[in-house]
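Action item from last meeting closed. Structure (275 res):
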């Protein structure tokens, strides 16, 4: 018989050694003990998509509390114990904020990046981009707000909205940036703390813009086929960015991936990047 129990919080000698991979293994054991139901059957009973369940069972990322509780309830596990174990792995529940930091987080709402992290991310990404090409930094400044009195209307932040038409651009930082295709193309994920919005950007420096396309897509890692996923394809551009994806859960991860064409042939720009 498979032992699917999880230790009482704070009593297990292995508590400090727990990990997302071990957590996922425990979920797989729980599934086995429940008769190894199919993903389709679990999805029908819980209302969670098969892709989200698959991600939770592989250990690639810590599933949300809602996902864990639904799966554990369906598989006959102890909700209290699994919630405690899941939250012990979640930095949001680590309980290591100082009093001042905790007050700031509570007064300003949950944020994916703290103010200090935002500054470090922006400075680090800008430095890397500047070493590769001054045009990367220049393209960020192009997203500055319109001059007062210009009459330009700013849209509300929402899924599918052009981020450059919103105030989200004002605090946007480069949350992830990688050079691909022998440093001829840069793929980036932009993030706005204030809007809780992510969008992708791909910029090429291969002098191959004419007649060639660029495509980028961003999606929630837990649900790659989500209706919230955003993508854009265009031709003849040096730089392209996607519509924004709103992710209110600061623990959830968002991923992006891009392709370009060169002389009509599609070039995959490598593995997805996630924040």
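Sequence:
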């Amino acid at each position: 018989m498979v032992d699917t129990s999880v230790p009482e919080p704070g009593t297990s000698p292995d508590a400090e050694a727990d990990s997302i991979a071990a957590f996922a293994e425990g979920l797989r054991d729980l599934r086995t003990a429940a008769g190894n139901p199919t993903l389709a059957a679990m999805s029908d009973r819980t209302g969670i998509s098969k892709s989200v369940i698959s991600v939770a069972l592989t250990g690639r990322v810590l599933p949300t509390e809602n996902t864990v509780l639904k799966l554990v309830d369906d598989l006959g596990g102890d909700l209290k114990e699994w919630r405690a174990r899941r939250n012990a792995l979640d930095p949001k529940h680590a309980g290591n904020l100082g009093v001042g930091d905790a007050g700031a987080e509570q007064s300003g709402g949950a944020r994916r990046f703290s103010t200090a992290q935002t500054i470090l991310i922006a400075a680090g990404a800008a430095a890397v981009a500047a070493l590769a090409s001054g045009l990367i930094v220049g393209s960020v400044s192009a997203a500055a707000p319109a001059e007062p009195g210009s009459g330009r209307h700013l849209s509300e932040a929402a899924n599918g909205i052009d981020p450059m038409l919103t105030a989200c651009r004002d605090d946007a930082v480069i949350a992830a940036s990688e050079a691909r295709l022998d440093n001829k193309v840069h793929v980036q994920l932009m993030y706005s703390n204030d809007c809780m919005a992510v969008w992708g950007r791909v910029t090429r420096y291969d002098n191959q813009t004419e007649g060639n396309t660029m495509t980028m897509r961003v999606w929630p890692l837990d649900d790659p086929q989500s209706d919230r996923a955003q993508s854009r394809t265009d031709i003849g551009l040096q730089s392209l960015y996607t519509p924004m994806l709103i992710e209110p859960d600061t623990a959830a991860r968002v991923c992006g991936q891009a392709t370009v064409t060169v002389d009509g042939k599609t070039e995959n720009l490598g593995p997805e990047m996630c924040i």
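Note appended to the action item: The CA atoms of residues 182 and 206 lie 10 Å apart.
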